[in-house]
């Protein structure tokens, strides 16, 4: 990519929620800002002004609602079209479904030469009927409007090709997968953080902590996890379940009921700006999801030396090497999940061994520096091919 400041490429990244940028794109943005003129578009609010955004990044606030909202969506589409025509970007890159549909359509109408979308999981996988068909058609339209498509795991890319959403020739995966990789210096084993978090929640140092960290909703399989924990906790009185994340599905009360007699060892945290400390405090990470593009939290746990239990679905199967860095079970099968939890709860040496292998794999294959370098190389090839 030409780093001449007079010929620097102009790149625009479009997401719906600023949290997507904060959680997944900061490392990419810092690297991109050194070699390109970068604009980010999101539904920024006043609270985002105090966030330490990378220098030289231009932020543009456009309300992009996650739910279907025809009038608001039309206004957002027009706003994107105007900025694309005015700024004449070389490349527009969208992430998340609504941002992808609006940005790819506006980019095509405005004549943006390179239009890239990243798929990070398919909402329609867990839907049925008309809504499944509608959302699936929207993903197919995004892929048709884009000049290039990224998937954040090899198994997700294979699924999208098999479903007729994307073409093999038009799609790719960065490095070994993941949208951003993991900062292995930030996410690491940390005895002090482990002790601090456990003390905060009244968890004894030697007890076994199962952790889920992410959005609290039904698609993540958390009711399955709470039911499995009820079984595991009845056999292992030293077992705890720690749930960290915003309750998008209003599930907290239902999760407590599902945990039954073990609800006293179910610990809830709404939000945290230090997820690395919770990973360090855990013994096993659990992601019993019904849909997932990759499972970044599994790799973050791995970097902290924590093995994972995950459902055997596309995306998660890229993040866990079964029997080496964690265990897999069939999505929705509570008994299988409980058996996997019992296996790790009762074998500290297995937890240490799989955790060490998980850490080694995260450092080797999923470092954020590796994924950022792969994204820059991908951009470079797109821009060079367009310029040729």
Please write out the topology:
Layout: E1 10-14, H1 18-32, E2 37-42, E3 57-61, H2 70-87, E4 91-95, H3 97-110, E5 114-119, H4 129-145, E6 148-151, H5 154-162, E7 171-173, H6 191-200, E8 208-213, H7 222-235, E9 239-244, H8 252-259, E10 266-269, H9 275-281, E11 284-287, H10 296-303, E12 308-311, H11 316-319, E13 326-329, H12 334-345, H13 348-365, H14 368-387
Parallel strand pairs: 1-2, 1-4, 2-3, 4-5, 5-6, 6-7, 8-9, 8-11, 9-10, 11-12, 12-13
What structural category characterises the helix and strand content? alpha/beta
CATH class of the largest domain: Alpha Beta
Q: Any idea of the CATH topology of the largest domain? A: Rossmann fold
Query: DSSP strand (E) fraction?
Result: 15-25%
Helix-residue proportion: 40-55%
> What does the largest sheet look like?
7 strands, parallel
Number of domain modules: 2
| Architecture per CATH nomenclature, i.e. the level-2 architecture of the largest domain | 3-Layer(aba) Sandwich
In which order are the strands of the major sheet placed?
Answer: 3-2-1-4-5-6-7
For this structure, what is the CATH homologous superfamily of the largest domain? Glycogen Phosphorylase B
Order of helices and strands: EHEEHEHEHEHEHEHEHEHEHEHEHHH
Q: Give the N-terminus to C-terminus distance in angstroms.
A: 13 Å
């Amino acid at each position: 990519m030409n780093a001449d400041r007079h010929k620097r490429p102009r790149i625009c990244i479009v997401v719906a929620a600023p949290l997507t940028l904060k959680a997944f794109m900061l490392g990419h943005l810092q690297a991109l800002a050194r070699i390109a003129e970068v604009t980010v578009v999101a539904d920024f609010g006043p609270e985002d002004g105090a966030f330490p955004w990378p220098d030289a990044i231009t932020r543009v606030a456009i309300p992009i609602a996650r739910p279907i909202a025809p009038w608001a969506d039309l206004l957002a589409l027009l706003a994107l079209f105007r900025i694309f025509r005015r700024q004449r970007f070389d490349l527009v890159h969208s992430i998340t479904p609504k941002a992808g549909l609006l940005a790819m359509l506006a980019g095509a109408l405005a004549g943006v030469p390179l239009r890239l979308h990243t798929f990070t999981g398919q909402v329609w996988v867990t839907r049925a009927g008309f809504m499944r068909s509608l959302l699936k058609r929207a993903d197919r339209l995004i892929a048709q409007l884009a000049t290039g498509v990224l998937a954040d795991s090899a198994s997700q890319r294979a699924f999208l090709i098999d479903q007729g959403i994307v073409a093999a020739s038009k799609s790719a995966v960065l490095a070994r997968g993941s949208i951003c990789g993991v900062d292995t210096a930030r996410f690491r084993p940390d005895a002090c953080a482990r002790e601090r978090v456990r003390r905060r929640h009244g968890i004894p140092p030697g007890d076994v902590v199962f952790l889920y960290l992410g959005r609290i909703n039904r698609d993540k399989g958390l009711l399955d996890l709470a039911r499995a924990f009820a079984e595991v906790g009845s056999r292992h009185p030293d077992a705890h379940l720690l749930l960290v994340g915003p309750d998008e599905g209003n599930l907290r009360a239902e999760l407590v009921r599902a945990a039954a007699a073990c609800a006293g060892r179910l610990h809830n945290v709404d939000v945290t700006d230090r997820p690395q400390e919770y990973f360090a405090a855990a013994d096993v990470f659990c992601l019993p999801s019904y849909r997932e593009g990759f499972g970044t939290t599994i790799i973050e746990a791995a970097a902290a030396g924590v093995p994972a239990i995950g459902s055997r679905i596309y995306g998660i199967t890229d993040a866990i090497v079964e029997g080496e860095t964690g265990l897999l079970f069939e999505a929705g099968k509570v008994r299988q999940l409980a058996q996997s939890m019992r296996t790790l709860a009762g074998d500290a040496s297995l937890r240490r061994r799989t955790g060490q292998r998980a850490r080694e794999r995260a450092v080797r294959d999923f470092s954020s520096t590796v994924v950022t370098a792969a994204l820059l190389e991908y951009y470079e090839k797109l821009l060079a091919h367009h310029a040729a």
